[in-house]
Amino acid sequence: MASTEPTNTQLREIAEADQESPFDMINLIKYRSIAVYESAADNAIGRSGREAYQEYGMVAFPKIIGMGGSLVYKGTCEHQFVGDESQNYDDLIIVRYPSRRAYLEMFNSVEYQQAIKHRIAGLEYRVLHESTSANIA
6, 130 in Cβ contact below 8 A? Predict the structure, then answer.
């Protein structure tokens, strides 16, 4: 099922996982051509989905850096090599978080919650994969 937001079950799973270990969040992003807000005033601005997501990022990225996280990778998906149309994304973003505790503190902050409206308006859907690195010998 295509979605932009985590379910209560998904939030509970991350809250019940190891809270102290660093992890990466792999974001596969599909933008709307035109952002769709709940508010007529926000819709009147006429943002593209990418522009709305950038509004969200102007809040999220400083919070990530402030907690000791980092942007590992951001790239545009230029050519779908394998998969069907339902797996065609616009951007791939990898963010490293210092811990799940820090992620949840950011997620639950007032500023972050207020910025989510831009993400919802800007995205057609997204897939997030929570990932921990493996030691490669």
Answer: no
101 contact partners, CB below 8 Å, separation of at least 6: 19, 20
Q: What is the pLDDT of residues 71-92, one digit of tens each?
A: 999 999 988 888 887 788 999 9
User: Exposed e or buried b for every residue in 58-97, given b needs 16+ CB within 10 A?
Assistant: ebbeebbeebebeeeeeeeeeeeeeeeeeeebbbebbbbb
Structure token pair of residue 27: 């974001």
The stretch 90-112 carries a mean pLDDT of: 96
Cα–Cα distance, 92 to 73 (Å, whole number): 8
Burial of residue 100 (number of CB atoms within 10 Å: 0-12, 13-18, 19+): buried
Out of 3.20.190.10, 3.90.550.10, 3.40.190.100, 3.30.70.100, select the CATH number for domain 21-131. Answer: 3.30.70.100
Predicted confidence (pLDDT) per residue in 1-26, tens digit = 678 888 899 999 999 999 999 999 99
- Average pLDDT (62-79) is 95
